[in-house]
Design goal:
Elements lengths: L1 E4 L3 H4 L5 E4 L35 H17 L20 H18 L11 H10 L6 E2 L7 E2 L2 E2 L2 H4 L2 H25 L6 H20 L1
Parallel strand pairs: 1-3
Antiparallel strand pairs: 1-2, 4-5
């Protein structure tokens, strides 16, 4: 489920390769039982106070420990696995998400009996950890199907309107540079209020057009 992908192996050999991974049935969503956000409140909160009747910290932490072990069993590496927490349009309440995660990590590390350590991480730290394992990864050289849902393949973002997408990327870079210049102008005491208004109007219309595209 974690492997080196060399899609250009016939022409470039090992010069171009991607460390790739396929995730469990939850995709990049919260694992089942841990969906808690203002826009995704399928599951109840983690209660870590054992003196309260709704205490469920040990049960939830045990579920996460078992989930992590399942992931370990289907990968070549057994030292580091990434558990993804989130989905599209989630983290509306970042405090709620991170508070739940911190409680889960704390309880999980206390009750685990299988030499697991839960940490809050990032993609770059996880990749560095995988490199440190010095594993001979499985290699895939052929193509990979894009995401499929209900017998439909999500391929449009690879192939549709390439000229427009290039135009948007160029305009975005220009807009970012323009914002830096505008910010300097707005904090300059010599810039009049009328000029500031014009700058803000120009920024709004540019940003609006980019957002629509």
């Amino acid at each position: 489920m974690t492997f080196l992908w060399r899609p250009f192996s016939k022409s470039l050999g090992q010069q171009k390769e991607i460390l790739a991974g396929v995730y469990n049935k939850d995709d990049y969503d919260y694992p089942l039982g841990f969906k808690l956000d203002e826009r995704k409140d399928d599951d109840g909160p983690l209660q870590d106070d054992p003196t309260l009747m709704d205490y469920n910290g040990k049960v939830k932490a045990t579920v996460m420990i078992n989930y992590a072990q399942e992931m370990i069993n289907i990968r070549a590496n057994d030292e580091h696995v990434m558990v993804l927490m989130g989905d599209d349009f989630t983290f509306m309440n970042a405090y709620q998400n991170y508070n739940e995660l911190e409680k889960l990590i704390k309880i999980g590390n206390i009750i685990q009996e299988v030499n697991l350590t839960f940490v809050m991480s990032t993609p770059s730290r996880f990749t560095d950890a995988l490199k440190s394992e010095n594993i001979k990864w499985p290699v895939k050289e052929d193509d990979i199907f894009p995401y499929m849902e209900n017998s439909l393949f999500w391929t449009g973002y690879f192939s549709s309107r390439p000229a427009l997408k290039k135009h948007v990327k160029d305009a975005s870079a220009f807009f970012n540079a323009e914002q830096n210049v505008f910010a300097r102008m707005q904090i300059d005491q010599k810039t009049s209020q009328q000029e500031v208004t014009k700058i803000n109007d120009a920024s709004f219309y540019f940003n609006d057009a980019l957002a629509v595209l």
